[in-house]
Amino acid sequence: QKLPNVMILATGGTIAGTGATSTTTVGYTAATVGVQQLINAVPELRKVANVSGEQVFQIASESMTNEHWLTLGKRVNTLLAQPNVDGIVITHGTDTLEETAYFLNLVVKSRKPVVLVGAMRPSTALSADGPINLYNAVLIAGSQDAVGKGVLVALGDQIHSARDVTKANTSTPDAFKTAELGMMGYVQGPKAHFYRVSTRKHTTETEFDISSLNALPQVDIVYGYANMNAVALNAFIAAGAKGIIHAGTGDGSLAAKVKPDLIAARKSGTIIVRSSRVGQGILARNGEANDDELDFVVADTLNPQKARILLMLAMTKTSNTKELQRMFYTY
Ligand SMILES: NC(=O)CC[C@H](N)C(=O)O
């Protein structure tokens, strides 16, 4: 039986981290082990795929930037266009793994599997989760069952969709959750088992094309809390933000001290997207604010950090708020 060809693109993170002792599970150094060492540590990979590695970056994922994403997205598209690449695994720090996954979910132009994988324990720790997570990710990336399902996230024997998964614990190995919408499946056997897919469009079905982009529009996130004011909002706009994600309290409610400044910002051209800091649920259009009248957009079920990604890509196409709202109900 012919094994699939899976490329492993390494970007850093804890999966490539090393600690002082085998019991060091926090306070270690991320992004120290190279891709070849990661592959060599799991000889079992060779039984399920022909793997080859490429070191794309070597960073902790909190330092991921829009420029890293454009570089990575273009590299993934180039590789997947080659007939000798059947799937891609991306090793990544877990802090922004969900963001990179969702970015790729919107810009990859292929139905071939792309699987993001990380680890919560450094490679030197007792029961390090990196090796089994990497093995699972390679298995998924080489699986016909993963074709056309959008960008996937593999941790803890679970398969999640890029759109809906989030990091939900600061430090435990089961940190990744797709809480209410549900994960896609499991790895067991060794085989990828899928049970559900998102109805939202992804990869080859999107209208976004990064092939000629070298930058993305500046979009920043304003966090909602009791006693908040408009200082952060106005500072972001003064610093050049073209779009603002308002990560509001509850169903995206707007504090009395902030709402007039949001309205003024919209009137002078800034795109305003209402989202929620709550983490679950639909952001109701025309609920906590009259979005039709104020010309705001709502983030649907996207969390603020993913709403930022969709808005950046959407603004490369249009600044029409009806069109932007359509995109938030499509992806
Ligand atoms: N568990 C991790 O991967 C976190 C390490 C680091 N902060 C990162 O995101 O790259």
Automatic annotation (TrEMBL):
Enzyme Commission designation: 3.5.1.1
Domain Asparaginase/glutaminase C-terminal stretches: 218-328
Residue ranges constituting the L-asparaginase N-terminal domain according to the UniProt record: 5-196
Hydrolase keyword on record: yes
A biological process from GO: asparagine metabolic process
Binding site for substrate: S61, T94, D95
Keyword Acetylation: no
Cross-referenced SMART domains: Asparaginase
Gene3D superfamilies with a match to the protein in the record: 3.40.50.40, L-asparaginase, N-terminal domain
Keywords noted in UniProt: Hydrolase, Signal
Cross-referenced Pfam families: Asparaginase, Asparaginase_C
Residues annotated as the enzyme's active site: T14 (o-isoaspartyl threonine intermediate), T14, T94
GO molecular function terms listed in the Swiss-Prot or TrEMBL record: asparaginase activity
UniProt cross-references to InterPro entries, sorted A to Z: AsnASE_II (IPR004550), Asp/glu_Ase-like_sf (IPR036152), Asparaginase/glutaminase-like (IPR006034), Asparaginase/glutaminase_AS1 (IPR020827), Asparaginase/glutaminase_AS2 (IPR027475), Asparaginase_C (IPR040919), L-asparaginase_C (IPR027473), L-asparaginase_N (IPR027474)
Transmembrane portions of the chain: none
Family recorded in the similarity comment: Belongs to the asparaginase 1 family.
Name the UniProt record assigns to this protein: Type II asparaginase
Species of provenance: Pseudoduganella guangdongensis
Lineage of origin: Bacteria, Pseudomonadati, Pseudomonadota, Betaproteobacteria, Burkholderiales
